[in-house]
Amino acid sequence: MSLLVLLTASSAFGAPSDATGAAAPGSVLEAVLFYIVAGGVVVSALGVCIAQNIVRMAVWLFTALASVAVMYFLLAANFIGAIQLIVYAGGTLILLVFGVMLTSKSPWIRFEAPKLELVAATVVCVGLFLSLCTLLGRAAWESVDEATAGTSIATIGRALITEYLVPFEMAGVVLMIVMVGAAHMARQEK
Amino acid sequence: MLSIGLTHYLVVAAVLLCTGLFTIMTKRNAIGILIGVELLLNAANVNLVAFDRFREGGLFDGQIMALFIIVLAAAEAAIAVGICINVYKNLATVDVDSARQLQG
Asked: Phi and psi at residue A76, in whole multiples of 5°?
């Protein structure tokens, strides 16, 4: 949905875009799209932490993950955005929903935290956010604002089997061990 | 305000971080805590990709790092859901406060 808006908006305004299709840095279109997507991320992240129902939390997590994926497209990281949608929103979230279904007698069951803990958590998290914002406001990043050409999937693929071959293979081994381990832990007792 | 820079993306990542932390601290359902961890990992990923985008040189180390974090997040979710199912089998609930047998 958000991606559709992104695509139609960029074609409707006829804004200059670089090779990856991301909006040109510094344009009004980029700012408008950023605020829409960032608003989506913030609202759904707040939805996750406010929702009491575990199924609603999962739905809010889906919108948060999808908004973050659109944000990756805005950042000219098309491959990461696609992987975010496929692996996170398509795989991990389904796993979580299966976990919810397998571990609750009723999907509407609630676990309440004590009021004192809610207050303490709110103070800690709001304090952390405000201090992070103060820090970010003071930091002077030496960042470039030119349009990057974007990283093509071929470039990433080539880097994965040359420069990053060892971590790539290790990730494969880790995934296999995790698969065996998860199947072993969750198997039915004889 | 209209020129979107690195700081804008970092603030969004900070929101994801704090909401994820809040979720971990307040939820009692083990799966809910897992959802909070996913938010935290996404905050790290947004940071990495944003730094990657606004960096000189046209390298893409940040994107590769984000890729590996996504892989590890999937692995972590699989293991954690397996643990939750096991806890549910043994205790008939996934309330983290009731899983205190290791305290002796």
From this structure: 60, 25
